[in-house]
């Protein structure tokens, strides 16, 4: 009997031991729930830290570029200026390309080592059916000696013709030397190094690009100081689209939005520059987009140039800001909505409104 009781006791003890090491379904679900909760808490923090690190890298890139522009000014007496049309107005949408050409000199000279025309690869001929498509900064040669720079992303199979000035702009990328660096003149022996280190700030074609692959926009200011916080005659003195014809008495803005306006065109926006201009204005501290910096802004922006990156989302300007017209918001609630949308934008600039 004693031996039988001992066997039963040992059996129960074994059962208890095996039962104590197993998870019930409820315990397993609780453990999974805790893991999911921790992931949901930590993942946004990790993503936020990663995004902040990327923005910090872009800010460092912009500082490198700003220093390079200053070195350029020391040599030439002025910051890089956009090429102008026959009427003297800066060629639209060439700000980013002008910056890359001036500081890095990535474009070729159109010649091979023997001095003969090298039209096949320097730059390459335009291909209307390019399998890879074209991205902002890509340089092509069309109709023999005409050079064009891409302004927007073009998907494979939908490459726009070079005559479409919303997608391409005539821009002579030749700078006297193939690759980073410059020659004082064609045929000269000495090659001058680029103003910006190509290992620190990369490029695509003739534009400098940030760590996210976005082109870095460049808006040179007009010479002279302008009060950007006070009202005045039209056109506005701060940021405006310069008309194609300008009279001698017409007041020009401090910055010309046309320098890179196509970059601010969001999906499905065609033929109307008003939302683009308004989007640019609010980003630089003009929250009712009337062309002037708000009086409440502590630091008026009056820099010799503006540098602008689209940031992690790859889109210039606020994503959730619906601006339909180039006029002041209808109500105070509209203005408040604008002021809330701008801080959410992840664009990176060299100014702080």
> Helical percent range?
25-40%
Number of strands: 10
The main pleated sheet reads as: 3 strands, antiparallel
In what range is the share of β-strand residues? Answer: 5-15%
Stretches where pLDDT is under 50 for at least 5 consecutive residues are none
Q: Ends: how far apart?
A: 92 Å
Q: From the helix content, strand content and strand pairing, which structural class follows? A: alpha+beta
Q: What number is the mean pLDDT?
A: 79
Order of strands, widest sheet:
1-2-3
Overall geometry: globular
H and E order: HHHEEEEEEEEHEHE
Radius of gyration equals 29 Å
Number of helical stretches of at least 4 residues: 5
Report on this structure.
Helix content is 29%, strand content 9%. It has 353 residues and is α+β, with helices and mostly antiparallel strands. The strands form 4 sheets. A 3-stranded antiparallel sheet has the order 1-2-3, with no helix packed on it. A 3-stranded antiparallel sheet has the order 6-9-10. The longest helix is centred in the first third of the chain and has 52 residues, at 25-76. The model has no long low-confidence stretch (mean pLDDT 79).
